[in-house]
Design goal:
Strand order of the largest sheet: 1-3-2
Oligomer: single chain
Distance between the termini: 27 Å
Number of helices: 1
Radius of gyration: 12 Å
Order of helices and strands: EHEE
């Protein structure tokens, strides 16, 4: 995965969440759960790193805003 930039965490209330899961369905379920609580810039795909188990997903949260879900 690419490095997290300063812009992603430039202000209080902004966060980057990386999810490691066994499969895509689990990773997206975690992302959906987060989206029920706050605004999320959602990922549309997971990444599998060669040699590592499972998949990873990165999403960006804005805790200052309520969820639209």
């Amino acid at each position: 995965m690419r490095p997290i930039s300063n812009a992603h965490v430039a202000e209080p209330g902004l966060a980057v969440v990386e999810v490691a899961a066994a499969d895509d369905e689990t990773a997206f379920a975690v992302q959906e759960l987060l989206a029920t609580r706050c605004a999320v810039a959602a990922a549309d795909r997971t990444i599998h790193e060669p040699g590592e188990p499972g998949v990873r997903l990165r999403c960006f949260l804005d805790l200052r805003q309520q969820s639209d879900a």
